[in-house]
Amino acid sequence: MKLKKIFLSLAVIAAAVMPSCTDLEPEIYTDVLKDNYFTTNEQFSTLIANAYANLAGEYGYVYREGYWSMQEYTSDECVVPTRGTDWFDNGVPMAMHKHTWEENTRDVNNGWSFAYGGVAKCNNVINNIYEIAGEDESLYNEVQKAGIAEARTLRAFYHLLAMDLYANVSIDDNGEKMELKQYTRKEVFEWIESQLLQCIPNLDNSVRYGSMTRPVAYMILAKLYLNAEVYTGT
Question: Taking Cα atoms as reference points, which of 216, 205, 199 lies closest to residue 151?
């Protein structure tokens, strides 16, 4: 008898709650939609943060075991002394110093991954902007114009680092599928130059630490021009 009462009680409870299971619409307290996103600089900062984080390199060493070592270990500006096996690193610093590295040498691979990993992150930002605001940049508001210019400038900077290290490299301005094609240094130089010149008018001209502002873009352009003879052969 007691068991029957328990089953009866459960049946009554189930009947009471069943109607509530048909109303599955959640109560939304806040939302982020295309129409109200990417309208402030703060929102854009969250969008591009990962592309900037790539600059820190491994363990925050400013891409030491890659771009930096290829620039410095290979010159007379830096040497890595060993103490027994400490800092020997399987002979990588010595190979860089003696110019006996190969395509699979750690720092050669790391330099490439650093540059094009950054390019990929920038393309992801740019594609997200296109999804939010469309691909017609002439219709963008001021925040969107500055944002797309900042992402494209950072992408051009990563391409400059790749070209400086590896000479004939690919240009990845899509992000969907990178074209496996080598461009001459001159062609990459001209592409980087065109990207910077297009972006500079829309870049933020204020003092903003750690961002691709207009003065930073001019610095990159100056670096490009200072090495123009090496990059273009003229």
Answer: 199
Question: How far apart are the C-alpha atoms of 17 and 133, rounded to whole Å?
Answer: 44
In a domain, 27, yes or no: no
Find the CATH number of the domain harbouring 60. 1.25.40.390
What are the tens digits of pLDDT across the range 56-92? 865 555 557 888 889 999 999 988 888 888 889 899 9
Owning domain of residue 54: 32-232
Tally of structural domains, the chain: 1
Give percent of the chain above pLDDT 70: 81
The β-bridge partners of 86 are 83
Q: Are 138 and 191 spatial neighbours (Cβ–Cβ below 8 Å)?
A: no
6, part of any domain: no
| Residue 33 main-chain phi, psi, to 5 deg | -115, 170
Would 8 be classed as within a structural domain?
no
Residue 19 belongs to what H/E stretch?
none
